[in-house]
Every structure is written in structure tokens, then in C-alpha cells.
Amino acid sequence: MKIDAHQHFWALERGDYGWLTPELKPIYRDFLPDDLQPNLRRAGIEGTVLVQAAPTVAETEYLLSLAAENSFIKGVVGWVDFDAPDAAQEIAKLAGNPALVGLRPMIQDIDDPNWMLGGTLAPAFQAIQHFDLAFDALVLPKHLGQLLELLKRYPNMRTVIDHGAKPEIRDSAFSDWATGMAALANGTNAYCKLSGLVTEAARDWTTENLRPYVDHLLDTFGPQRLIWGSDWPVCTLASSYDRWVDTTETLLATQTDADLVAILGGNAANFYNLRN
């Protein structure tokens, strides 16, 4: 099964997408299952992982309702307030829904780069492990040292780094990012998503602009710990769905058939324990 392991839906009238403003005109509208399904059919993708886009439990419950109505949604990565005194209880409540496969605090939007290391977050991380959920790490290159320390504290927590940690491709920044990602790949069991790179590149990006970053992820995490995703509809700020599919096909052209099966679906199914 081919799986898009990172996509979003939103309905603007819900009102909790603080980052989504009219300035982002191409994506400042509703995006719902009927909008995505033609893309999935063209790409031969049978299932998706639906990921939170708002820092509210209400949005997570909304996404779980969409999963109940749409069989192609194989799992939901939601959100809880990790700082809240009742974070563990909230996680326990949400984990009662089998469609919930993971949680994602929006670390990239938190001012304190050391936030994830705060002692008050321990109950949330412990609950993630207790309920066998995944941790989606939405981080930037500046967070890689802290993420390494966090994962050494919780070596058994199933973790995936979203969007390759968003390397600054448009500025050709590579060395520090590459060192940090190699340390995570070699020093932890974390997976990494092959997604979200096009929106970190220049407006006139080409496949070759992305190649050094993708090659580094292949060299460090290997094809057994890379998970493909589209980051749709955010990706449409820089690329059509079809172009991203074609681009990754080119970038992965040297991989074996078995490795392609893993990157394009098998790894996601195993990592997230996706339902059939």
C-alpha cells in the first residue's frame, strides 16, 4: 500500500488556525477529503496519515471525525497541550480512539528552543509511550541538539522528524543541519519524513536543489527509516501534488524496489501501526 504519511485538512470557519492568514492566499480556504482524493487516485495512493494543523484538542477531535467518515485516512496525528497539568489524562482520553496514532506539539512555533526539555512535559511524553503513540517532532534545524537530548531521555519513544527538520534550502544552508541530522540518525531510533522540503526551497526550485538534502537523509537514516509524505495542501505554496510525486520518484530512482515500497508506504504503516 502506498501511503501519504503527512497531509492536512482544515475548515476556516473553525477559527483555530492562527498561522493560516489571508496572506497565504493559495491555501487560505477549506481543504477537505474531496479536494485530496483526485491527487491520491492519480498517484496510486491508498491511504494517508492526517496531521494536526491547529494547537487545539477540538481540532484533533474534528480530524478523528473525518477519519471515521473516510476510510482512506488510516491514522490521525493530533495535538494536546503538553504543558497542561492534565496532559496525561487528555492523552489517555484521545488514545481511546483507535484512529489516533500520534501527537504533535507545534515546536517550530514555540519561542523557547529548549521548551521540549522542560521537566513539566515528562507526564505527556510518558503517556505517549504508555499508550503506544508516535511523537511527530515538528522542529527546525536550531532544535536538533535539543531533540537529540530529548530522545536520549526517552529512547523507546517512537519518534519521526517532520519534513527533514526543515533545512534552509533556499539559503543553501547544509553543514550544521547535516551534522545534526546525522547525530539523530546514528544516536537514536528516530524516523524521518521525506516531506515538506519544497516550501523550504527557493520559489524557482529544481529537483537538483533538493538532491543533496534527500541524499543525506538516505545516507544517514537509510530507506528503512524514511517515510514519504506530501505535506498537502501546504506544499501547494511551492509545488503541485503531482510535481512532488514526480520529484521524489526522480530523487529515489536509485533505490531498490523493496526500498521504494518501504519509503512510499511500508515504513509509515509499521511506524504508525496503521489500521487496514
What proportion of the residues form beta strands (DSSP E)? 5-15%
Order of strands in the sheet with most strands: 1-2-3-4-5-6-7-8
Assigned CATH superfamily: Metal-dependent hydrolases
Average pLDDT number = 98
User: How many H/I helices?
Assistant: 9
CATH architecture: Alpha-Beta Barrel
- For this structure, what is the CATH class? Alpha Beta
Order of helices and strands: EHEHEHEHEHEHEHEHH
Helix fraction by DSSP (H/I, runs of at least 4) = 25-40%
- Major beta-sheet overview: 8 strands, parallel
Give me the CATH fold name.
TIM Barrel
User: What's the count of strands?
Assistant: 8
What's the Cα radius of gyration?
A: 17 Å
| Shape field | globular
Class from helix and strand fractions: alpha/beta
Can you tell me about this structure?
The protein has an eight-stranded parallel β-sheet. The protein is globular, with a radius of gyration of 17 Å. The termini are close together. The chain contains nine helices and eight strands. It has one domain: Alpha-Beta Barrel (TIM Barrel), CATH 3.20.20. β3, α3 and β4 form a beta-alpha-beta unit. It has 276 residues and is α/β, with parallel strands linked by helices.
